[in-house]
UniProtKB/TrEMBL annotation:
<dbReference type="InterPro" id="IPR002467">
    <property type="entry name" value="Pept_M24A_MAP1"/>
</dbReference>
<feature type="binding site">
    <location>
        <position position="239"/>
    </location>
    <ligand>
        <name>a divalent metal cation 1</name>
    </ligand>
</feature>
<feature type="binding site">
    <location>
        <position position="181"/>
    </location>
    <ligand>
        <name>substrate</name>
    </ligand>
</feature>
<feature type="binding site">
    <location>
        <position position="239"/>
    </location>
    <ligand>
        <name>a divalent metal cation 2</name>
    </ligand>
</feature>
<dbReference type="InterPro" id="IPR036005">
    <property type="entry name" value="Creatinase/aminopeptidase-like"/>
</dbReference>
<keyword id="KW-0479">Metal-binding</keyword>
<comment type="subunit">
    <text>Monomer.</text>
</comment>
<feature type="binding site">
    <location>
        <position position="83"/>
    </location>
    <ligand>
        <name>substrate</name>
    </ligand>
</feature>
<feature type="binding site">
    <location>
        <position position="100"/>
    </location>
    <ligand>
        <name>a divalent metal cation 1</name>
    </ligand>
</feature>
<feature type="domain" description="Peptidase M24">
    <location>
        <begin position="12"/>
        <end position="246"/>
    </location>
</feature>
<feature type="binding site">
    <location>
        <position position="111"/>
    </location>
    <ligand>
        <name>a divalent metal cation 2</name>
    </ligand>
</feature>
<keyword id="KW-0031">Aminopeptidase</keyword>
<dbReference type="InterPro" id="IPR001714">
    <property type="entry name" value="Pept_M24_MAP"/>
</dbReference>
<comment type="function">
    <text>Removes the N-terminal methionine from nascent proteins. The N-terminal methionine is often cleaved when the second residue in the primary sequence is small and uncharged (Met-Ala-, Cys, Gly, Pro, Ser, Thr, or Val). Requires deformylation of the N(alpha)-formylated initiator methionine before it can be hydrolyzed.</text>
</comment>
<feature type="binding site">
    <location>
        <position position="174"/>
    </location>
    <ligand>
        <name>a divalent metal cation 2</name>
    </ligand>
</feature>
<protein>
    <recommendedName>
        <fullName>Methionine aminopeptidase</fullName>
        <ecNumber>3.4.11.18</ecNumber>
    </recommendedName>
</protein>
<keyword id="KW-0378">Hydrolase</keyword>
Amino acid sequence: MVELKSKTSIDAMYEAGQVVARALTAARDAAGVGVSLLELDELAHEVLREAGAASPFLGYRPSFAPTPFPAVLCTSVNDAVVHGVPTDYRLRDGDLVSLDFGAQLNGWAGDSALSFVVGTPRPADARLVETAERALAAGIAAAVPGNRMGDIGHAIGTVCRSAGYGILDDFGGHGIGRRMHEDPPVPNEGRPGRGLPLRPGMVLAIEPMLLGGGRDDYHVAPDGWTLRTNDGSRAAHVEHTVAITESGPRVLTERR
């Protein structure tokens, strides 16, 4: 069942979203050569503590996972697409990093992700990240009353496919509210004019996941969480929590 949120509820979700934005900004700014993924996780955890917020990631165990997630931040590097578990790996010049983070504040959740290159980017990586951001912007622009879910997926998929990238099989965005994952699912490909009608009060986590090699397939790493490209190509993952309103999409996890 899809829950429609009131303006008051959306305002409360914005506050949770801003905790997410602060944590991602802090982690991205700290992610230099020689910094470990565990250090980034601890930094994000400190932002939660300062805000009096909780992590919807820590201890989360969906049906596909063999163990609960052990951190507050997903850290996916190079060929890791999503769900990367923080380790003592220290970042190197040219690493492509995707960070995914959530926060629960006063009963409401926020969820967002960003991708960037540490140090000097390869041109191909810079293009991949820029395309992911364009795909996210296109999906957000389609999140308006009167459209359908397929319009969001079509907008995202068109940007990704026209650039020659793959789209992660089996995973996409989701509804969000009191819980991090709610109905409805939000696809990264779709047919325009098809699917669930979009209504004011719906809040969606829109999250393109691009695979640089052009294929869609992946495998699960031995940690049981990290999803890696089968061909070893690099990947990018970006996400915002977005409310559908009468006046257009409102990004609740915008970074300042």
